[in-house]
Amino acid sequence: GYLDDQFVQLEELQDHANPNFVEEVVALFYKDSSRLLLNIDQALEKKPLEFTKLDGYMHQFKGSSSSIGAKKVKAECTLFRDYCRAGNAEGCMRTFQQLKKEYATLRKKLEAYFQ
Amino acid sequence: MVVGTGASGSMAADGVEERKQMSALIVDDNSVIQKIHKVIMTKLGFETQVVDNGKMAVDLHTSGCSFDVILMDMEMPVMNGIEATKELRAMGVETMIVGVTACSLESEKQAFKEAGLNECFVKPLNMEEAKSLVKKLNKEDN
């Protein structure tokens, strides 16, 4: 699946006092993600790559992804960070493309969930 | 589980000691984490305050604020969790400081603990972990 136990934890936090909690958290995730993906896209166009900067952005994206239980996106974040630490530009580029695909799929799943 | 047993209470008219609501400071630059931790701590009866980085946490304490527990992220801009924890301990802040980090490197987590944390968890905190903190706080209070 695309979402792990952390998503279940979020569902369990939703109650009458926080009736739209899951939707609100996901909205924040989307907002964070859009900003970070744009930053990473732009950073990947600069040559040579600034691996420390890229790693920093991806650390934040990984944090947000794991907070909502987005396990496949999180896995790509981890791989990307490994490539950053190894100074592997091609690996970073390739992984980022895969990450964007996983993220797009995740958004479709979440949209279906909220309908 | 008893929540809200602050160190100081006041006597109500019928002679029953009133319990002070406990307070939590959430220190994290990630809005998703801020929201999750705020909801968890609020559910457990805490009054919460949220700041974006370690410097804001330190400034709050410098201005005289105090809390029963601090949830401290490790990586933040301006001042990170390690620096902020060291600074707070150097100021004499004895509040329970709980590190929450997405960092998987043991060496970095160890450095965070050595800065003066009482506990360290992988973020986000879950309800069970938060309840364990409340138990510890209530034990210390008693």
UniProtKB/TrEMBL annotation, chain A:
MF GO annotations: histidine phosphotransfer kinase activity; protein histidine kinase binding
UniProt keyword annotations, A-Z: Cytokinin signaling pathway, Cytoplasm, Kinase, Nucleus, Phosphoprotein, Transferase, Two-component regulatory system
Domain annotation HPt: ranges: 18-113
Phosphohistidine modifications at: 59
GO cellular component, one term: nucleus
InterPro entries assigned to the protein according to its UniProt record, in alphabetical order: AHP1-5/YPD1, HPT_dom_sf, Sig_transdc_His_kin_Hpt_dom
Protein location: Cytoplasm, Cytosol; Nucleus
Location (main, coarse): cytoplasm
Source species, domain of life: Eukaryota
Gene3D superfamilies registered for this protein in UniProt: HPT domain
One Pfam short name: Hpt
GO terms classed as biological process: cytokinin-activated signaling pathway; phosphorelay signal transduction system
Domain notes: Histidine-containing phosphotransfer domain (HPt) contains an active histidine that mediates the phosphotransfer.
Function comment: Functions as a two-component phosphorelay mediators between cytokinin sensor histidine kinases and response regulators (B-type ARRs). Plays an important role in propagating cytokinin signal transduction.
Protein name: Histidine-containing phosphotransfer protein
Organism from which the protein derives: Dillenia turbinata
From TrEMBL, chain B:
Keyword terms of this UniProt record: Phosphoprotein
Record keyword Acyltransferase present: no
Source organism (scientific name): Dillenia turbinata
PANTHER family in UniProt: TWO-COMPONENT RESPONSE REGULATOR, TWO-COMPONENT RESPONSE REGULATOR ARR22
Cross-referenced Pfam families: Response_reg
Cited SMART domains: REC (SM00448)
SUPFAM superfamilies to which the protein is assigned, alphabetical: CheY-like
GO biological process assignments: phosphorelay signal transduction system
Protein's name according to its UniProt entry: Signal transduction response regulator, receiver domain
Residue ranges annotated for the Response regulatory domain, each copy included: 23-138
Modified residues (4-aspartylphosphate): 73
